[in-house]
Write a structure and sequence with these properties.
5-stranded mixed sheet; Rossmann fold; 3 domains; alpha/beta; membrane; 10 helices; transmembrane; transmembrane helix; single chain
Length: 338
């Protein structure tokens, strides 16, 4: 009841300037100020002109607050992690992200080229995160009081590894934005937080199992104590699972950057039966379900096996998994460079 009263109070406060403006105009009409102004301007006074001015003042009082309220809150942050030498990088996506981020109360951008060399790549991601964290700290957003919308433009492995670094920003109110393929408008897709690691309710699990399947795939029994998580959320790429299974079984692949040191004994394969709907509830449920399935499956293994991740999914899901699995030793296996 108190919360409803507070919300109603805030609504009255927002309307107060409008009623004040209308009252001012009404008093001005009664005192003859507006009629005199109309007569001085147009040479005559008519009820229609007076009413037109009153209507214009009312519209001004309504449109101004509505425009202010429609402006996205918080800080819009574009993190553009462009691979060095990339020839097919989507500048259109970057431009769309910048345009929407600029509409927030505050905004900034972090641009970092990501080299292919592992050590140089790690240093570049560290530098990008350092810029991101420093600018948020300058704006006082690290406390969590200010919402932060992250427009992350990156390849899957870079989105994943950048989000792993966000484990240090435990107090930040941070949501990763997603752009549908057929739209230039981003929406809130995954809110990064501890809730992503929480257990699913029976109803949530049943809902997730409507579009996600999980199975164990035996691989190389003579491999070291190493396992893989293979996630395919792109039904349009039906060969992804077969390619990842082959790479994890043999340590050889033309699709993935693997070596014999990546051979695994078994894999948990999680696949989507259809494209994910573009909404936050589905994206977060998918991230949570994958985390819970992996944790449950991994608990059946002893002696803390090494872990590999093969992923085909939206970069937003990659970021959600990077944040969720940040404290685990799992390593992302990237595709081979084109």
């Amino acid at each position: 009841m108190r919360r409803g009263a507070n919300q109603a109070g805030r609504g009255r406060l927002r309307l107060a300037p409008l009623w004040t403006l209308i009252a001012f105009v009404a008093v001005a009409v009664l005192n003859g100020l507006i009629p005199d102004l109309v007569k001085a301007t147009f040479g005559q006074t008519t009820p229609i002109l007076v009413l037109a001015i009153l209507a214009a003042a009312t519209v001004f009082g309504v449109v101004g607050p509505l425009r202010s309220r429609s402006r996205p809150r918080g800080i819009g942050v574009v993190v553009n992690l462009r691979p060095v030498g990339a020839t097919n990088w989507s500048q259109q996506r970057v431009t769309a992200a910048q345009a929407q981020a600029n509409q927030h109360d505050d905004h900034f951008q972090v641009s970092q080229e990501i080299p292919a060399d592992p050590d140089a790549r790690r240093a570049a991601l560290d530098a990008a995160y350092a810029q991101f964290h420093a600018k948020l700290t300058e704006r006082g957003a690290a406390s969590g009081a200010t919402p932060v919308c992250l427009y992350l433009i990156a390849r899957l492995p870079d989105a994943y590894d950048f989000a792993r670094r966000l484990k240090y920003d435990v107090h930040t109110n941070l949501v990763v934005m997603q752009k549908p393929e057929n739209s230039s408008v981003f929406y809130e897709a995954v809110h990064l937080g501890g809730h992503l690691r929480g257990p699913l309710s029976p109803a949530e699990r049943r809902q997730a199992e409507k579009f996600l399947t999980a199975r164990t795939e035996p691989l190389a029994p003579d491999a070291p104590n190493r396992v893989a998580l293979i996630i395919s959320l792109s039904p349009s790429n039906p060969s992804m699972v077969a390619n990842a299974v082959h790479a994890a079984r043999t340590g050889q692949s033309t699709e993935y950057a693997v070596s014999p040191d990546d051979r695994c004994r078994a894999a948990l394969v999680i696949s989507a039966s259809s494209p994910l709907p573009d909404d936050r509830a589905t994206f977060e449920l998918t991230t949570r379900h994958i985390h819970q399935q992996w944790a449950t499956w991994l608990a059946t293994w002893h002696d803390d096996p090494e872990q590999r991740l093969f992923l085909a999914a939206p970069a937003t899901i990659a970021a959600g998994l990077g944040h969720t699995l940040a404290r685990s030793p799992i390593r992302f296996v990237p595709h081979t460079p084109n």
